[in-house]
Each structure stands twice: as C-alpha cells, then as structure tokens.
Design goal:
The chain has 3 helices and 12 strands, in the order αβαβββββββαββββ. Strand 5 (99-100) and strand 6 form a beta hairpin. It is of the alpha+beta class. The protein has one domain (24-213). It has a 7-stranded antiparallel sheet with strand order 1-2-3-4-7-8-9, with helices on one face. The chain has helices at residues 2-22, 39-43, 152-163, and strands spanning 25-29, 49-53, 59-65, 89-95, 99-100, 106-107, 110-118, 133-139, 170-172, 183-186, 192-198, 206-213.
Length: 219
C-alpha cells in the first residue's frame, strides 16, 4: 500500500510538472537597462519586469510596464476594450532573438516601446484579431519621449521603423479575464497570451493581456 501511495505521488508530480511546462513560465527580472533608451524613458518604467518563457524553456520576450499608466473613463472608440489614450506608452518589450509581429512581419532582436492604438474600422486592419486593441512597437532609439502623444499617422510612421515596411509593427491585446492572474496561457488558435493585473497611476490594478507569440492571417 505504501509503495502504491509513493507511485501515485510520483505520477501526480510528473503530471503537474507537465501541465506547468505546457503553460510556459513568467519570471521576475531586474530593471530595464538598454543603453539605446533615453533616461526619460527608463525613468517611467517599473523597476522590475517580466521574463516570458515558452513551454520549451526558451525566452520569448522581456517586458517592463510603465509605472504611471493612466486610464480614461471609457474606451476611446466603440469596440475597444481598454481605456488607454491613443498612443499612450504602455511599456517596453525586448526580444532576445528575431521574432514576428502579429502581422507576421519579421522584427530584429532588440528593445521596442509599446504604444496603445485601436485598429481603424475601415477594412485596412492592423491585424485580424478578436479585439481592436493593439500596441504598436517602435525601436527605443526612435521613441525618446515617453510623454509624447501621436495621432495614428505619426504612430504608424514611427512603428514602421520596427517592421522595416510601410506597415506598423502590431502586437494584439487580448480580452483579459476578470482576475487576470500572472500567467502565460495558450489559446485554441495557438497564441501565447501573457496576462497580469497591470498597475496604474490611480486606483486598483486592471486586468491586462497581450499576445506575445503568434501571428494572424491578414484580411
């Protein structure tokens, strides 16, 4: 009987380890230190970030969120989920190796700012996503002022420096769960979604989720 209990415990541990690996891993990391970023940009970021590892253990990205993000009373347009201002700096993401954005455009390894935008409702979508909410990536060397505000055309122009094409470099935001615990999950579409409760300047942290790996066919 004792040996059966031991075997059961070993099998349970193996199963839980497998499930944990399948979900990927999020780990705490130190402050953002890319010398290409301005001191002003580094100063608005939280002092700790998140390393996001896929199920195979590889580091997909590192993310540092803004420490004083603000939210509006309601989304800036119909159909949006999040209540950020247009072009608001959400944080910085660093890719340790070349990757692809949500349009499946190739991006060089390096650090990028993430600025909020909503896809235009005109048929020319930034990405075929379940939500209209995105962040557009800009190389940190090209985005010097974290407090700058841009209209869509200006933001697209800056983001095209990341993609190296005439298109911006989007990452899709996902609809967050009500609690959004710190986690990395895989959707039925094959997207890896990083979720957490995001600290904001005033009030309780808000649920937030971003697709950190996965691309969608364009319409």
């Amino acid at each position: 009987m004792r040996s059966r209990h031991i075997l059961y415990a070993v099998l349970l541990f193996a199963l839980s380890s497998h499930l944990s690996a399948a979900a990927g891993k999020v780990e705490s990391i130190g402050a953002f230190d890319d010398p290409q970023a301005t001191a002003s940009l580094r100063s608005v970021l939280q002092k700790t970030g998140y390393g996001v590892r896929l199920p195979d253990g590889s580091l997909q990205c590192e993310i540092w969120f803004r420490s004083d993000a603000t939210i509006l009373p309601k989304p800036i347009t119909e159909g949006a989920i999040y209540r950020f201002s247009e072009s608001e700096l959400i944080g910085v993401i660093r890719f340790p190796k070349p990757t692809a954005d949500f349009r499946n455009q190739q991006l060089p390894a390096g650090s990028y700012t993430m600025r909020y935008e909503v896809s235009p409702n005109d048929g020319n979508h930034l990405g075929a996503s379940a939500t209209r909410d995105f962040v557009l990536l800009i190389p940190v060397a090209a985005d010097k002022d974290p407090h700058a505000a841009y209209k869509l055309d200006g933001l697209v122009s800056l983001s095209s420096k990341a993609s190296g094409t005439s298109h911006p470099a989007p990452m899709a935001l996902a609809s967050p769960g009500e609690n959004s615990p710190l986690s990395l999950t895989k959707t039925t579409e094959g997207f890896y979604v990083f979720s957490l409760r995001l600290k904001i300047e005033r009030g309780e942290p808000i649920p937030f989720a971003i697709i950190v790996e996965g691309s969608s066919p364009q319409s």
